[in-house]
Amino acid sequence: MIEQERSPLPPAAHEGAHAIEVDNLAKRYGEVEAVKGVSFTVEHGEVFAFLGPNGAGKTTTIRMLCTLTQPTGGRASIDGYDVSTRARDVRQRIGLVFQEQTLDQQLTAEENLRFHAVLYGVPKSEVDARIDRALRMVQLIDRRSDLVSTFSGGMARRLEIARGMLHTPAVLFLDEPTIGLDPQTRALMWEDVLRLRREEGVTIFLTTHYMEEAEYADRIAIIDQGKIVALDTSGALKRTIGADTVELATGNDDLAAKNLEAAGFNIKRGDDEVVAFVENGEAQVASIIAAAGTPIRTVKVHRPTLEDVFLHYTGRQIREGQGGGPTPPHFMHFARRR
Amino acid sequence: MSVTSTTAAPTHPQHHLAASSDLRTIGMVWRRELIRFVRTRTRILTSFVQPILFLFVLGYGMSSLVGTTGGFDFKKFVFPGIVAMTVVTTAIFSAISIVWDREFGFLREMLVAPVSRGALVIGKTLGGASVATVQGTIMLALAPLIGVHLTPLLVLEVIGLEMLMASALTAFGVFVASRIQRMEGFQVVMQLVLFPMIFLSGALFPLSGIPAWLAVITRINPLTYAVDPLRHVVFAAQNMPAAAVARFETGVTIFGYLVPLYLEIVIVLVFLVVFLSLAIVGFSKKD
Fold this sequence. Notes:
By secondary structure, chain A is of the alpha/beta class. Chain A is about 35% helix and about 25% strand. In chain A, α4 packs across α5 (about 125-135), α5 runs antiparallel to α6 and α6 (about 155-165) runs parallel beside α7. By secondary structure, chain B is mainly alpha-helical. The longest helix of chain B is centred in the first third of the chain and has 31 residues, at about 75-105.
């Protein structure tokens, strides 16, 4: 039943074409170089995040990939179709959810979807079934005949995601998809997105400046000032900047440091603490305390976050008071030093 | 879903003939205009306020000044002009909604779709024109109130001319909207263009016996050639005595040459095609 409703993705330009292929892509506005030559490849079914502060070039890149902005250098292709020369083929294969809302408030949810279905050439015989399915997917089936002007920000956003998927695109672009949404709605939206990926096999490309949002991605590209400064899985990125830290406050830091060093731990003396760098902080706490050989007042285990990774690569925090919560000051201290 | 075919020929539903997909797009954009029109009842009502005000205030006020010739007065003269005014303002305000769409983001949803800009602009123009024609035709219902006779032929002819006038003016408005980013800008252009165009089109006063400079401006104004045929077909259905025909002249003359009806229609058609093309070009730019 479900299988019947699903229609095949439009064919790729050639066998083995990557979902997204970007080679030295650049965009210059007069004197300003918004994107300074970025290269990366996204595989089919992958969730790929562009993480960076406002003004880093995220939106310009997404606009180039969606054929809305003409690149001034390099090339990019979607499903094997070049974004500069095959714009219409590219547009047919992508779904777009913009930063700002792009629904018609005076139309109902269903009318908005129907409009989209026609513009994207969904066959007449399939339109109703697809609208039904899309609305069910984002749990808005009960609101299908309500005007969008009565929708909350979260509902509107989920309707946009449903709309972006209506023509079964190969790649769904989400530009800052959860900006201005409360955490609960964000989580709900991500449930939708990940379900889409699972059930439809769609490739997802998102831009964000929220750390916890980037964590949903299979791979993350950290972009700063128009350049990709790091690109890997969340775990690998965290590993590149170092191990977990176990921070001890003891009655006698000198003694603790000496004992830990003797026991083979890689340590560092702080002003009022001893820090041990280990592979798996939580599992090692007991042996560290035992090896310290002096009474322990407090223990803190810290695992590197994307915030730390970002700080490491760019030398600053992505956005004060945003993202994955405040970074513990002691860790920033060490991160900056190495 | 009854699939009887057994051949497993791969079908790609996305691959439509460009022409049929463009037609579907035009239809959908047109339909959206109508849905929005029906849904904004306040807009329907308020768009009648101005023309009705003009009809009664100007019509009655001027009638006492101009007087009655052979049972024909200024109210009857100005009535077709007021219908035209309704059509023109509604058409322009339908086109304005593009600037709203830009501000509310929906324009982007349309512009990123894999359809031709021509289909979008034509759909929008037809939608705005339909709405304007409906408004103008509703105004026509006031005819008996001021003593203008309606015949089925007259109504058909008026609707046809309204459609043409409305398409031309919506296309013009869509072109303006393609060049303007913000609502304030559109209002400025409309104050500077729309109202002078209406006032200098012969909608509200006869084009004969006016000062030379005014005559020149009215002859340059393309709207003049849309208003005159409308008045012509309305007058043709009235039993006007010769004195009234002479008093309230129809027809546009340029250096003594009476522009024939068909040429007036051709002028409006050219205006339509020019601004439709400019609007399509205006929306085809990429940064």
